[in-house]
Amino acid sequence: MTNPPPPGNWSDPTWSAQPSSPAPDPTLVAGQPVPAQPGPVDPYAPAPYAPDPYAPDPYAPVDPYAGAKQSAAQPMPGYAPPGYPPQYPGYGYPQPPKTNGMAIAAFVLALIGFTSCITAPIGAILGHVAQKQIRLSGEGGAGMAKAAIIVGWILTGFLVLVIAIYAAAIIYAIATSDNSSSSSY
After folding, report:
1. pLDDT exceeding 70 applies to what percent of the chain?
2. pLDDT digits 0-9 by tens, 122-152
3. 123 lies in which domain range?
4. What Cα–Cα distance (Å) separates residue 132 from each residue in 110, 111, 135, 151?
5. Facing residues of 39 across strands?
6. What is the DSSP string of 52-106?
7. Reduced to 3 states, what is the DSSP secondary structure of residue 140?
8. Most exposed of 28, 52, 138, 155 (fewest Cβ within 10 Å)?
9. Beta bridge partners of 140
10. How confident is the model at residue 67 (pLDDT cuts 50, 70, 90)?
11. Domain count, the chain
């Protein structure tokens, strides 16, 4: 319910039924033109403070895997495409190169040379042949061939030393037996 206007055509500041004129702007200076009052508002015009509806949202959550995602049409890396034969080599660790058979034989013969000493030079020679094959083919077993060469030649040196000691012992025995048998008569 509204009250009637006061008599005498004067405005009462306590009167709440009629809006009073706005208070003067304290930032205006006397003598300056008054800024234009806003006109009718276009309901379809964007507000001056509204963000661009086509701009990305700066507060949207960030996906840390955004660059790593693939489309559903592409298969995952490391797997063969569905329906095709495998295009990738076997899974797991890469296989070491095949060991040279000559290197294995040389190593075995060099080790058997500990007991017989006859197979040691054969193992050393086969070790040299195996090293040349490994250099040409790229197979594994270079360490085994080198071990066969070292062990084989060391045992061959011991074999030569033992044969020289036996030969010297035989020669000494023959030389001393001839002197003792001739002086006793």
Report:
1. 57
2. 999 999 999 999 999 989 999 999 999 999 9
3. 101-180
4. 18, 21, 5, 18
5. none
6. PTTSPPTTSPP-TTGGG---TTSPPTTSPPTTS---S--SSSPPPPPBPHHHHHH
7. strand
8. 52
9. 99
10. low
11. 1
